[in-house]
Design a protein that fits this description.
Elements (H helix, E strand, L loop, with lengths): L4 E11 L3 E11 L3 E5 L6 H8 L5 E8 L2 E2 L5 H5 L2 E5 L10 H6 L14 H13 L15 H15 L3 E5 L7 H18 L2 E5 L3 H6 L3 E6 L2 E6 L3
Parallel strand pairs: 3-8, 3-9, 6-7, 7-8
Antiparallel strand pairs: 1-2, 1-4, 4-5, 9-10
Helix pairs in contact: 4-5, 5-6
Length: 227
């Protein structure tokens, strides 16, 4: 695999009881924002989970920087890719700073002590996503758009070369959808990260992404949108 390739899918079929995507082979480059489009039920979330090494693969291979994702430990996977779902699985009573700090969990020692580098990465993520003004607020005090930025900040704090986001703009208004997708594109460009996010907002997502992946008729098609 080229050192400019972040993700390689090799004859991949995904699904649970039956395949919803079949025999996919594709390579995705480093440093690009990639929007994943498709109707409900076509396998967008399942594909993201499979790339993260969680579940959903029926056959084939998935490589992250030449490493077979299903041969890696949880800790090893967590240092290569971060997976963010729409909505919060943690308590919304957490303060923003503490929530973003959870991104450093895979790197903490047995005493869960944060190093100076951990603190720097947390603060950088907060600055980049422009949430510093409410970092001491509780999550449940925030708007939907602010919460989504917190989720992206947490993934940034995890500092993985690959970021996977499932519907990060769901339930947002047009202004916030544009801000979030532009933020993802900027992060990909400025920090050389490969970001894949699923979306139903075709026009906004295509405008603010480098590459389009489109699921249709159990196939995955790629189109270059911008360099």
């Amino acid at each position: 695999m080229s050192n400019t390739t972040a993700i390689k899918l090799e004859k991949l079929s995904i699904g649970y009881h039956q395949a919803i995507l079949n025999n996919i082979s594709i390579e995705l480059p480093v440093g690009k924002s990639i929007v994943l489009l498709g109707l409900n039920g076509t396998g967008k979330s399942t594909l993201l989970r499979a790339i993260a090494g969680i579940e959903g693969r029926l056959s084939g291979k998935i490589y992250l920087f030449d490493k077979d994702v299903f041969a890696l430990s949880y800790s090893e996977r967590a240092k290569l890719s971060s997976l963010i779902f729409s909505g919060f699985s943690e308590s919304t009573s957490l303060k923003v700073f503490d929530y973003v700090s959870l991104g450093r969990t895979p790197y903490l020692n047995l005493l869960a002590q944060k190093t100076k580098q951990d603190e720097e990465l947390i603060n950088r993520a907060i600055e980049l996503t422009e949430i510093k003004s409410f970092q001491k607020f509780h999550i449940d005090e925030l708007s939907d758009g602010e919460r989504q930025k917190c989720m992206i900040a947490r993934a940034l704090a995890q500092d993985t070369p690959i970021m996977l986001l499932d519907e990060p703009t769901s339930h947002l208004d047009v202004k916030n959808k544009a801000e979030i997708t532009q933020l993802l594109k900027t992060i990909a460009e400025d920090f050389n990260k490969t970001i894949i996010y699923s979306s139903h907002d075709v026009d906004i997502a295509k405008k603010n992404s480098h590459i389009q992946l489109h699921i249709e008729n159990d196939n995955l098609n790629m189109a270059i949108l911008s360099s």
